[in-house]
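Please predict the structure of the following assembly.
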Amino acid sequence: MSKYDFTFDPPAPVIDVEVVNRLTGEVVQLRGQIDTGSSISAIPHSTVQAMGLTPGTFMDVRDFERTVRRVPIFVVTLRMYSVILINAETVGIERDDMLIGRDILEYFILTLDGKRREFTMVDS
Amino acid sequence: MARKVIREPNALYEALTDVSLLKEEPIFVNIGNTRAVLMSEARYLELTRQQSEDERIEEILKPLEPEIEAFNRLLPELLTEHEGKWVAIHGGQVVAMNQSKQEILDLIVRERYEPVFFHRVQAGPRIGEITRIEGVRDVKV
């Protein structure tokens, strides 16, 4: 079991993630907040710029207010819990950490224990 | 440049809520020893010469423009026989097509296509959901 991150209010499940540039192999380590409300994951713009990532496509994303925006998509490799996700699509976001959306969570078994502020995330 | 001074407002928020004041921007606000300026975003960007978010994203997507235009041009023809497949566009041409997005993305890296645009062959846009759209850099739809 991993403890929730208490720097969030209320506390949130957060994991360590390595973002890898598929072309250069450059690696950036980030914290990733589990976000079951997002269908796609997001990485900080600072990471996009630092790694020199270029977009490969775009997607129209909408939020809970149904605001729709067209955003560029950056394809990266992600490493977490000994699992390597090649060709993960991500959007850039104005945050210091990652959002781990359902596109990544579908590869794991995620169990949230809100009462104990603990969670598990395993690949089998 | 017109200059308005609001003397010791009860709260900065009062000035902020009176939008009509912004028609005569910039407005200088004195709050104790602190002096603030209210102005439109357009004026701020003009003064600081910062790019707007739209301009920044347009710049990010600019290398892909020819490939996106090629995809849009080829889309009606692709839809007739290849709807649902994934394509990679490079040099204005389809360089790969596959049912599997992973196959397309692997090939893009293997062949070092740059710039390259990939997309699913479908009539409408790809739609995603995100909880916090406010931090996402966007382009006009």
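The two ends of chain B are 35 Å apart (CA to CA). The CA atoms of residues 61 and 137 of chain B lie 12 Å apart.
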